[in-house]
Amino acid sequence: MVLSKPELRVGLLLAVAMFLSGVTAASTYPYSSVVAIEFLGMSGPLYSVVIAVSSIVGATLSGIFGYFSDRLRDRRLMALFSAFAGCVGYGMIYVFRNTTAFTVATCLITPAAMSLFSQNFAYARAYYQMSGSERADLAVSMLRSVFATAWIVVPPLAGYLAAVASPFDVYLMTAVAYVACGAVIVFMMRDRATAVRPPKASAQQAAEQRTAPIPVVFGLFGILLMTVAMRLVGTAMPLVIVAEMGGSVGDVGLYAGLAAACEVPFMILWAYLGLRIPRTIIIFANGLLLCLYLVVASGLTSVQALLWLQPLNGLAMAALLTTTISYTQDAIKGRVGLSSSLIDILGVAASLLGAVIFGVVSAIAQYRVAITISGAVAALGGLAVLLTEYGPALLRRPPDVPDPRHADER
């Protein structure tokens, strides 16, 4: 598969933009609660409300941005606006360093920056679809691996910066990353040949673009279930390590870093296997693999045994973090921007549902029970995706074909 020079140039710039997008998320995510509660004096319940409001506003804005990005002369304008919002919001927290600035920025400004991730992917898919849908899936998977790489590289750097200076300086790091990402987008927009304009749709196509077919909606429900499982694991596993395996906070960091490091090479592997294996099969198989990993992990008693199990975790998570993006982007025909916004919406819904499940389970059982439940939810989600592809065919009975040996009996 040979890429043209413009495709190589755009691919390189998109890789830089996705890495910077990963920097914006990976640098502040571990320190948000610390800054709000320990340094600004917010109460735990108030912080929870602020985060919940931020998630809901972010999901709403992501849907709005996705809707309009499919109608703009250049869909990168929405990604550029998201980068600007991120710079302003996180810059405000760094400069003012008070509860009011944190609340306003987190609830009203930084949610608009959430769309940078999905809109960059929307542009990448739309651009590479001009060269064939298979190449688009491969490009999306490769870019997701670049995003994941930032989660390996950035947290140690952000932790060092927070330790030697101040956690607020991490917000400056994030704001600068948004500025740099915006600069990359502007640089790409200078080349008019790389603009992807929405194609003119017929009346029938326009009707199809308004909604996703019922089977696809059921498939998206499966993606939601698997995302809930991943969010629930992200909440419960650190607590299992510390409270039930006798590990330390350092072990949590080692677990997270090793898991992310295992995901990147497998993302590249699944990107190429996706050229030969249907997406629904990949998602279903890795839903089962994630279930297997979580069921085994829930019965472990040592951190070392859990660390040895991370290649299996990385294999499954790599597919579910990449292939599900391509699946979601095809949800609404001809509306890659709006479909891509579903990535953010499903992520927010999964976080809220995962928090509810964790709250109920942790109140009545050990944290490792939540891990077991996550495995069941992941398998159920994979099955739902598989049934959207093959279920209708299985339900349709083939017409009766008369046996020619009995033709004379009629």
TrEMBL record:
Q: Which Pfam families match?
A: MFS_1
Q: Which UniProt keywords apply?
A: Cell membrane, Membrane, Sugar transport, Transmembrane, Transmembrane helix, Transport
Name the principal localization, coarsely classed: membrane
Which PROSITE patterns would you find in this protein's record? MFS (PS50850)
Classification via InterPro entries = MFS (IPR011701), MFS_dom (IPR020846), MFS_trans_sf (IPR036259)
Query: Which residues does the UniProt record annotate as the domain Major facilitator superfamily (MFS) profile?
Result: 215-410
Its record classes its membrane topology as: Multi-pass membrane protein
Family to which the UniProt record says this protein belongs: Belongs to the major facilitator superfamily. Set transporter family.
Q: This chain belongs to which protein, by name?
A: MFS transporter
Q: Which residues form a coiled coil?
A: none
